[in-house]
Design a protein that fits this description.
The chain crosses the membrane at residues 7-28, 48-67, 88-105, 125-145, 157-176, 188-210, 217-236. The protein is mostly helical. 74% of the residues lie in helices and 0% in strands. The protein has a single domain (52-247), classed as Clc chloride channel (Orthogonal Bundle).
Length: 270
Amino acid sequence: MRPQFRYNLISIKAVFIGVIMSTVVYQLCNGQHAVIEVGKLSAAPTNTLWLYLVLGAVFGGVGVMFNRLIFRTQDMFARLHGGELRKIVLMGGGLGGLCGVLALIQPEAAGGGFGLIPIAAAGNYTVGMLMFIFIARIVTTLLCFGSGAPGGIFAPMLALGTLFGTAFGLASSHLFPQYGIEPGTFAIAGMGALFAATVRAPLTGIVLVLEMTDNYQLILPMIITCLGATLVAQFLGGQPLYSSLLARTLEKQRAAEKTGKENTTNAVNT
């Protein structure tokens, strides 16, 4: 839990009630089906579980690198526009145009990513194509989120995890054909692993992805992958993404308030 907020039993009860009611209303209106349709996948064979640990370790490093690139991109854009509205508008328009052109040339590299996840998880791309889209989406995600453009980072993060996880699963199926590997299971594990490594919330990543894909039979490989990713990210000194973003926002607010007080004091003294 974040130290910036106070928690008590009443607030926790309110969260439980809100979650239960929202789930019931959603299922009454839309039925009981997966939010992300990837189909029902088979449970992972026991002799393949070590591959999920390797995948988690790789995602631990990827998550740390991803978080650091986000912070550096934010700092870069802050230096470029310097808070000037004209520069912000020009940069936003330029990035919007660039994303529009990219969506026409390579649609998989643009957008939120929810539509891409089922296609990638089904194994419709080669390993090389998956890695190309993965790198392209990292660049577009950094540019869009780092610039402060609306859109968020949750869906792009799941798409990135799916792309890399599927590529890892396809490569593993070629290297170890005797295992009978289903690449889609690594796609789901990758979604949770990248979330766990960047946000440092493995339990949330496990429950969230299994709930959204309706593949609860993959809970064991999910636990292995997400815990592996979290432990490696912690070992490498990575900081949780959302907590770091909140801390940076609060620090900027405090700096702005301090500057405002100093200006007021100087004006009074003058």
